[in-house]
């Protein structure tokens, strides 16, 4: 991080001696970030001796995120991130990011998505088969179990037994929960405390199991899952990924496919439960399209309202809510000088609630995304301000995968259930860590009106439902390439 931010950028008000803006950031970071827009396009932020520049204007944020040569993922923040999570495609600096992205991109080609959707369908069926009418579940935890199981099955469908899958998922959960401390408070993270010891043990378990899986895959021959496609990926000079690189990519893909997608589903359910008219309409759409089934790839176009609910949930509560970039050379941004070493922050939460781009930004309104016009029309300003998957050359490779997963899973739930929210406290003050999410979301499972509850079935652990490889590509759906800026 820069020890001296450019003097021409005015600091946000409320700065305390020595502490800077630590107290308002500690008390309510989302509310504090949302106030910065009124103090300029670029606003100085101080946390103790550290200084940042927050980019509040969508045009300038677009400029920062699209110019990776000038505003790169370097500096102590990303050094800590890479120590915790490895140097995968989501954390590496330019030009290593460019090399990795070119190698990984074919694995996310649109022709593979129908096969991945079958993984989603099998794991969603397993989850729903274990729910009982009238019981209260922690929706945040249930969605994490679902999405990490989907990510693991998409990666390791041919070589991961159910017990192995659960062991890896559990280690990953401990690893993920502890990563925030390791990045934000490295000195605290080195203390021999129970949580830190669990984190280190989970990290060792995680890395060993992934290494073993990669070794097994290298000897197994051709398969049709995501790991096999990553193993087959070649760089511009014909080189493949090393085992260490593959391990880092697995961590990135599980974070993106597990934690961020589960947060999206959790926020979507929270918003639906607090807006019963939209919940009712979305449930009717899901029941009409799916009947008694679980959503599949070919039904995505018919789940139009569900898609807009997910899109609006991503606007109001973007899982990736804060991005950092470091100026690698002196630059001018918004007419101001940005010295080398300055750390710039782009907050999707702040940009997504800009009233000049999204009228009544604090109102849940899926209709703002109707294609016929209005604030949600896909104009350049909206595209620059709406960044749930990031932007520029580092935009998430799995955007289509995650979007499809969220819509299919949410519709499958709503076709069977009319959930009732039991407690809003955790959603009203969410955890602002690597991923923005409520720590808990207790929901009571009420069968959707007019639908008879399923006969009780034995609870089947996630992962037991799918033991074969991901089906090969379906040419019927091979029309579109994954967007990669």
UniProtKB/TrEMBL annotation:
> What Pfam families has UniProt attached to this entry?
p450 (PF00067)
- Domain of life, per UniProt, equals Bacteria
Note down the stretches annotated as region Disordered: 448-485
**Is Metal-binding given among the entry's keywords?**
yes
Q: Which UniProt keywords apply?
A: Heme, Iron, Metal-binding, Monooxygenase, Oxidoreductase
Q: Please list the residues that bind heme.
A: 396
* SUPFAM superfamilies assigned: Cytochrome P450
Could you state a single Gene Ontology molecular function term?
A: oxidoreductase activity, acting on paired donors, with incorporation or reduction of molecular oxygen
Output the PROSITE patterns linked to this UniProt entry: CYTOCHROME_P450 (PS00086)
Q: Which co-factors does it depend on?
A: heme
Which InterPro entries does this entry report, sorted A to Z?
Cyt_P450 (IPR001128), Cyt_P450_CS (IPR017972), Cyt_P450_E_grp-I (IPR002401), Cyt_P450_sf (IPR036396), Cytochrome_P450_monoxygenase (IPR050121)
Q: Which family does it belong to?
A: Belongs to the cytochrome P450 family.
Q: What is this protein called?
A: Cytochrome P450
- State the organism named in the record: Actinospica durhamensis
What lineage, starting at the top, does this entry show? Answer: Bacteria, Bacillati, Actinomycetota, Actinomycetes, Catenulisporales
């Amino acid at each position: 991080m820069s020890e001296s931010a450019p003097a021409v950028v005015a600091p946000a008000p409320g700065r305390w001696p020595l502490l800077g803006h630590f107290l308002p950031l500690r008390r309510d970071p989302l509310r504090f970030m949302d106030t910065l827009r009124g103090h300029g396009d670029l606003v100085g932020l101080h946390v103790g001796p550290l200084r940042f520049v927050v980019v509040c204007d969508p045009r300038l944020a677009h400029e920062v995120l699209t110019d990776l040569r000038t505003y790169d993922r370097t500096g102590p923040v990303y050094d800590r991130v890479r120590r915790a999570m490895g140097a995968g495609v989501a954390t590496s600096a330019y030009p290593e990011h460019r090399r990795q992205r070119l190698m990984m991109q074919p694995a996310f080609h649109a022709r593979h998505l129908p096969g991945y959707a079958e993984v989603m369908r099998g794991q969603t069926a397993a989850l729903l088969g274990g729910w009982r009418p009238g019981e209260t579940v922690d929706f945040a935890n249930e969605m994490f179990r679902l999405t990490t199981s989907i990510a693991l099955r998409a990666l390791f469908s041919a070589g991961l037994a159910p017990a192995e899958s659960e062991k890896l998922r559990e280690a990953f959960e401990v690893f993920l929960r502890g990563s925030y401390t390791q990045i934000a408070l490295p000195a605290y993270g080195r203390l021999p405390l129970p949580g830190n010891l669990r984190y280190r043990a989970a990290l060792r378990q995680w890395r060993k199991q992934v290494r073993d899986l990669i070794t097994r895959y290298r000897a197994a021959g051709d398969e049709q899952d995501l790991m096999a496609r990553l193993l087959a990926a070649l760089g511009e000079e014909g080189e493949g990924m090393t085992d260490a690189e593959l391990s880092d990519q697995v961590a990135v893909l599980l974070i993106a496919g597990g934690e961020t997608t589960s947060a999206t589903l959790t926020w979507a359910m929270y918003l639906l439960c607090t807006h019963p008219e939209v919940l009712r309409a979305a449930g009717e759409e899901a029941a009409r399209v799916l009947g008694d089934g679980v959503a599949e790839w070919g039904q995505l176009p018919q789940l139009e309202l569900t898609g807009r609910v997910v899109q609006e949930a991503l606007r109001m509560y973007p899982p990736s809510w804060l991005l950092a970039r470091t100026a690698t050379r002196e630059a001018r941004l918004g007419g101001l000088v940005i010295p080398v070493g300055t750390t710039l922050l782009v907050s999707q939460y702040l940009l997504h609630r800009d009233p000049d781009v999204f009228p009544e930004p604090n109102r849940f309104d899926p209709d703002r995304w109707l294609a016929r016009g209005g604030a949600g029309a896909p104009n350049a300003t909206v595209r620059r301000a709406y960044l749930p998957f990031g932007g520029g050359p580092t935009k998430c490779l799995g955007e289509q995968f995650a979007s499809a997963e969220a819509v299919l899973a949410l519709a499958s739930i709503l076709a069977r259930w009319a959930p009732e929210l039991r407690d809003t406290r955790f959603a009203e003050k969410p955890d602002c860590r690597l991923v923005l999410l409520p720590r808990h979301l207790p929901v009571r499972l009420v069968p959707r009106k007019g639908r008879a509850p399923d006969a009780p079935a034995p609870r089947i652990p996630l992962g037991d439902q799918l033991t074969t490889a991901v089906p090969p590509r379906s040419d019927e759906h091979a029309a579109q390439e994954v967007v990669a800026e």
